[in-house]
Amino acid sequence: MIFIQLSERQEKIIDIVKENEPITGEAIAQRLKLTRSTLRPDLAILTMSGILDARPKVGYFYTGKTAFSFVSESIRKIKVSEVKSVPIVVDEESSIYDSIVTLFLEDVSSIFVTSNGFLTGVVSRKDFLKNAIGGLDLNKTPIGVIMTRMPNIVVTKPEETILDAAMKIIDHEVDSIPVVEEVEIKDGKSEYRIIGKISKTTITRLFVELGKND
Amino acid sequence: MIFIQLSERQEKIIDIVKENEPITGEAIAQRLKLTRSTLRPDLAILTMSGILDARPKVGYFYTGKTAFSFVSESIRKIKVSEVKSVPIVVDEESSIYDSIVTLFLEDVSSIFVTSNGFLTGVVSRKDFLKNAIGGLDLNKTPIGVIMTRMPNIVVTKPEETILDAAMKIIDHEVDSIPVVEEVEIKDGKSEYRIIGKISKTTITRLFVELGKND
User: Fold this and answer.
1) Interface contact A212-B163, CB threshold 8 A
2) Which of A10, A67, B30, B80 could be bridged to B1 by S-S, CB 3.0 to 4.6 A?
């Protein structure tokens, strides 16, 4: 896929088609006082890009397609597996206090909780703050008591697009979601193993990368 | 600006140029068993997009420009003023406890602090959590005591691009930055009035909007 900065003449052609559709290539050339063959590459570009549509024996139409279509296509192609970051995980038996220390040491906004290596919960900075001012004994209370518990956890998978993951973060109003792979344990039951994390920081960093790209 | 999905023939042309640069249009046509004039629109598209470069009497070169250039251009065009969200502000004399309540009521990750209506500080969820477990009397201590104070605050302005703002957020490892306008007070001194906020949530939401755009 490529991107093209339209020339002034191409912009003029679009305007002419917008106002006069359907209009033949010959008629466009007349208005611009140019030959039909001079316009051929311009019309090829405008139809290939989908901005104009050409129907045989009728002429050119304006489709209304805009430049932003491309951004969307690029974002949709990036997979969660390509941009996921390292998840910070504690066991369900860890104290709230120790988990907060881990949160600060790792400088993350959420911590994922496991039992026997499988995802059982998520705790955000907001959850910690709520409980820190709530009078709980942070040293004695295990994190399992305050965490958001499965199956109420939004997750993403490596093969999903980063757009899907970002939509989950926005729709569910969370700061980050775990990237998981499903592991069958027995009797057809399955659990999630945590293999990464997608956060608002991941998305913001990706946004900067895409924006800086030359 | 427009976006074009390259045809198979155009992809082939790029490959031929990559391997044989510089190569004339005539030579490319021969390899594809096509006439020079059949290739003219393809070569026009590939040079206009900047993927190929044409030098008279020498031939075509491959420039190495990629599809992502366009995403970057789009992101660079969006101004902070177009996407900023509502800032949550408390006065420097407010207690830490009241500020935490505001943080929860408004569901934001950072609070901006003012004195006489001008920006004096920023407090994040992380700052609140650190002090909540630190043994301070949250009801009696004013937020001014724990805030990050001017001039150590990263700000953005309405006319800056959203890419600039996102880079500041990533580089300074903060969740959000205030959008300010500079107000001259007297003797050439100036202060910042807070008129908005750009956060990782703003960026993630914009990312989703750009990605969903059709």
Assistant:
1) yes
2) A67
